[in-house]
Amino acid sequence: MALYRTRMCPSLLDRGDRCLRKCVLMLYQPCHLSTSQKPQTVFSRIAAKTKSFNAKYEQFLERTFPNFYILYSTFTKGFRMVLVDGKDVRRIVKKMNSQKLPYHQLPYREMEKLRQFRRDIIKALPVMIISIPPFANYLVFVLMYFFPRQLLIRHFWTPKQQEEFLDIYHDLRKGVYTDLMDSLVKSVPRVTEQPLQNQMLQLVTQVQRGVHPSVTEIQDVRDAFSGPPYCMSRLHVQQMKSLSRIMFLTPHLPAFFLQRRLMSHIFEIHQLDIALLQLGVKELTDEEVKRACYIRGLNSTPLNTEDCREWLNCWLQLSNNLKASEASLLLHSMVLLSANYLQSLKK
């Protein structure tokens, strides 16, 4: 038995060594990994297939239902823009909290982003509430299709709708120009100083006749708006309702709330003006210039960019020289400075 073991063991050991060497070579054989192709995960494959399906679906809609495709693409782009704005607002709010910055110390674009996003959310809130019940989203889509101006925010408007709706909104505020000018004329006798009374009557009459006033002529009557009869605390309810319509605010509130909202919004615009002066009008894009003019009372849709920049510079010149007690003059200047600007360019 011992002799058998001595004869068999060397062969068995050699065979075992060969097997062991093969296993070691297989385990430690260098791996050649390709850097040109990354292994696709399940998620990436699903995302790629979804993207391909959406592209084919959009091509189908564009060929078969071109009108519906315009609405579909506008809604899709608008939804992405809302998400981008939401991320920007979240970043700005986080910055304000971390650095303990008040609203008026933010740069112009961040201030404007917060202001516009807040107004958009307030307008979209009723639609969001209506869509909460089950199957109510179908009703919402119908309402959005038939009432896009009333229910949708600007992100979901087509370029054609944007021009059309902005003209409609400006016509609504332009409809109260006559009433506001008439109320200013009726209050002129209540101005205590005779020279100031004459200047005020001349300015309002000039605007009523279609003449565009200069910034200096508006600044000359500033004392009439820092006290009675044109300061914020002395305005009649009808005047505050007209001014609310000009600022696209609801006029259906008690006088106390109308006054507070008007003061709050005109101070907000004044803070934007200060930030815009630091930035410079020349740094704004064409779209930003037109939007800035529109929220300050000027219908910028039919105007070219250079005319809008010129008007915005005039507005900033006026706003920069007014005190907080003269906020009523800045509010009325949304009419005084913009009512006849387009006609003055045609002459």
Percent of residues in helices comes to: over 70%
Net shape: elongated
Structural class: mainly alpha
Low-confidence stretches: 1-17, 22-39
Q: What is the tally of helical segments?
A: 17
List the helices and strands and how they pair.
Blueprint: H1 2-27, H2 42-64, H3 66-99, H4 108-130, H5 136-146, H6 148-151, H7 159-174, H8 177-187, H9 194-208, H10 215-219, H11 222-226, H12 237-246, H13 255-279, H14 286-295, H15 305-320, H16 327-336, H17 341-346
Helix pairs in contact: 2-3, 3-4, 8-9, 12-13, 13-16, 14-15
Please give a structural write-up.
With 347 residues, the protein is mainly α. It has two domains: 57-156, no CATH class; 174-346, no CATH class. Helices cover 72% and strands 0% of the residues. It has 17 helices and no strands. Helix 2 (42-64) crosses helix 3, helix 3 (66-99) crosses helix 4 and helix 14 (286-295) crosses helix 15 (305-320). The longest helix has 34 residues, at 66-99. It is elongated. Residues 1-17 and 22-39 have low confidence and may be disordered.
Summarize the structure.
With 347 residues, this protein is an all-alpha fold. The chain has 17 helices and no strands.
